[in-house]
């Protein structure tokens, strides 16, 4: 099963620029440990993953009545900003949740991908 994992930056984790250099290095070690744990776990594959620019860099595309418009900024006014994402293939949700415990203290949304077949 494939899962989209959204890392939302309003958990216990403070904003990246507010971290000291040592804290940034520790956060990066946690991401590296997550990557390694996924590689070592049978049946788990990280298919994609990236850090995201903040909401001020987002562009929203809306289609209404056949017309498309672009606006600067996130889809909705946000208090919490997405810090990044992973697309992970895992045998089940329990395995994925266990592995996500390695990551820094983000709020996390997990959505299973729909298999069209």
TrEMBL record:
InterPro entries per UniProt: Dimeric_a/b-barrel, YCII
Limits of the YCII-related domain: 15-105
Pfam families: YCII
Domain of life assignment: Bacteria
UniProt family annotation: Belongs to the YciI family.
Protein name (database record): YciI family protein
